[in-house]
Amino acid sequence: DLLSDTIESFRAMAEEKRVTLSGLAAPGADPVYIDARQISRVLSNLVSNALRHTPGGGRVLLHAYPARNHVVVEVSDSGQGIRPEDLPHLFEQFFRGERSRSRATGGSGLGLAIVKAIVEAHSGQIRVESTLGKGTRFVFTLPQTAQAAAGHPLKRLAQRKQSSQD
């Protein structure tokens, strides 16, 4: 549902830019133990960035599939790509990469740092792969089993909130 909701919320932007936006959730990608609002924020940030850096005629794809007690989520684009020297710094606060690109596309340099913090708070991991002139792919994992999710802070917070409401 989150993939569909994200695609729908960015459909107008994609159409305006003439970028194909699509998604696919493979069978077995549910259930995932998450804070849906926070993961929606992750997806929105990644899709927004992908659309901003993909020229007309390009594509942005969201894909989710199960893998060893986790769900893998990919956001890939056929955009301009990221310089290799910038890749190790993408998840640092206030990092904006190439200055001319940053001015042209905006952003404070906080989005990807927040994305990483949210994914890690869910006991997940995130990485990025990119080739200049060919595109970028962000890949993150989320726990798919209650055992994997049991220890993460958001699950405990949800349990505490429920207990205090009882």
Description of the structure:
The chain has 166 residues and is of the alpha+beta class. Helices cover 41% and strands 23% of the residues. The protein contains six helices and five strands. The chain has a five-stranded mixed beta sheet. The longest helix is centred in the first third of the chain and has 17 residues, at 36-52. It is globular. It starts with a helix and ends with a helix.
Annotation, overall tally of beta strands: 5
Question: What string, H for helix and E for strand, traces the elements in order?
Answer: HEHEEHHEEHH
Sheet bearing the most strands, described? 5 strands, mixed
The shape, in one word, is: globular
Helix content: 40-55%
Number of helices: 6
Mean pLDDT: 84
Low-confidence stretches: 99-105, 154-166
Q: What is the radius of gyration?
A: 16 Å
Task: Determine the oligomeric state from the structure.
Answer: single chain
Distance between the termini: 28 Å
The computed structural class is: alpha+beta
The portion of residues forming beta strands comes to 15-25%
Question: How do the strands of the widest beta sheet line up side by side?
Answer: 1-2-3-5-4
Present the secondary structure layout.
Layout: H1 2-17, E1 20-25, H2 36-52, E2 59-67, E3 70-77, H3 99-105, H4 111-121, E4 126-131, E5 135-143, H5 146-149, H6 153-165
Parallel strand pairs: 1-2
Antiparallel strand pairs: 2-3, 3-5, 4-5
Helix pairs in contact: 1-2, 2-4
Write a brief caption for the model.
With 166 residues, the chain is an alpha+beta fold.
Summary tags:
166 residues; disordered C terminus; 6 helices
